[in-house]
Amino acid sequence: MGGMNSWTELVHHHAPGVTLFKSDALRVLRTVGTASVDCVVTSPPYWGMRDYGADGQYGMEPTVEDYAASLRRVFAEVKRVLTPTGTCWVNLGDSYGGSWGNYVAVGSSSRTAQDRVRERRHGAHRRPQSWMPRKSLIGLPRRVAFAMRQDGWLLRSAVVWHKPNAAPESVRDRFSTSYETVFLFAASDRHYLSSTSEADLWSVPVRAYRGAHNAVGPVDIAAKAIELGCPRRGVVLDPFSGTATTGVAARALGHRYIGIDLNPAFHDLAIARFAEQEGETPWQPSR
Questions:
Q1: What sequence ranges are listed for the domain DNA methylase N-4/N-6 (predicted)?
Q2: How buried is residue 53: exposed, middle or buried, by Cβ count under 10 Å (0-12/13-18/19+)?
Q3: Angstrom distance (rounded) from CA 21 to CA 106
Q4: Distance of CA 137 to the CA centre of its chain
Q5: What is the 3-state secondary structure (H, E, C) of 188-206?
Q6: pTM: predicted TM-score of the whole model, two decimal places
Q7: 3-state SS string for the chain
C-alpha cells in the first residue's frame, strides 16, 4: 500500500486477513500500492435504485452518463492496483427509461416532495433522461463495460447469473427479470484463471439476509469468481464492500480481504459476519 499516513486514517477495522476502509472508493484506491491486489470482486450500487444515506455515494448520479463516468474513474484505479495476472469481476443490474417513482423536481416546494427528500427514499434524486424512451431498457451494464474497455480493460466474459428463485416484479407489460450480468475483466492477456471448464451461466438462488442492508448478493457468486480468478493465498478487494459478502467468501477460501465502503454501519455489519465466520467449519460454495 501507499504511505502509512495516507491510508491508516481511513481504516475502519483491521484484523488478521481483513482491512475495512471507510471512505470514498476512489480516495482509498489512490493510496493502495500498484500491482498489489490479485482479484477484485464487486457489485457497485446500481444507478437510481437505492439511497443509502451516505454523502458522496455512487448510484445517485443525475444521469446515466455521469454514473458510467463515476464507475470508470474507480475502475481505472482498480486496474492500476491489480497485478499483471489479476482479474476483476463486476456484477451490475440494468434499469429502464423514465423517472423513478419518488423523483423530486428541483425547486419543488410541495409537502409530498419535502417529505420524500426528508425521508431520503430511494430514487429521490434521479431525474428523467430526456434522450431515453420511457420504459425502454437502458443497457447500463454494457454501457459501463464498454466504457471500461476504452480504458484498456480486456472484457473477457459476460456471465449470466440466473436467479431460480427471483421474485416476480409488479409489471404487466414485460417479463420479470430473473438474471443479472457478471463481467470478467482482465488487465492483461496473461490473467489468471483456474479453470476454463466453468460455463458462463451460473444458476445461483438469492439468499435472504437478516441485516440492515437490502442489496446483499449471495456469497456463492463471489466465491465462484474468487475460486476462478484468484491464485492461492491472494489479496481480494471490493471497492463497494457493503456488508462484505466478497470478504466472507474470500476469507472462507483462505485469501486476504480489503473492503471499501462509505457507510460505517455496513462495515459494522460486515465485522459481525466475520466474527460469526471465525471458528466455524469452512463454508463451501454451492455448485
A1: 37-270
A2: exposed
A3: 33
A4: 20
A5: CCCCCCCCCCCCCEEECCC
A6: 0.84
A7: CCCHHHHHHHEEEEECCEEEEECCHHHHHCCCCCCCEEEEEECCCCCCCCCCCCCCCCCCCCCHHHHHHHHHHHHHHHHHHEEEEEEEEEEECCCECCCCCCCCCCCCCCHHHHHHHHHCCCCCCCCCCCCCCCCCECCHHHHHHHHHHHCCCEEEEEEEEECCCCCCCCCCCCCCCCEEEEEEEECCCCCCCCCCCCCCEEECCCCCCCCCCCCCCCHHHHHHHHHHHCCCCCEEEECCCCCCHHHHHHHHCCCEEEEEECCHHHHHHHHHHHHHHCCCCCCCCCC
Amino acid, single-letter form, for residue 130 = S
The three three-digit cell numbers of residue 217, written as one number: 448478493
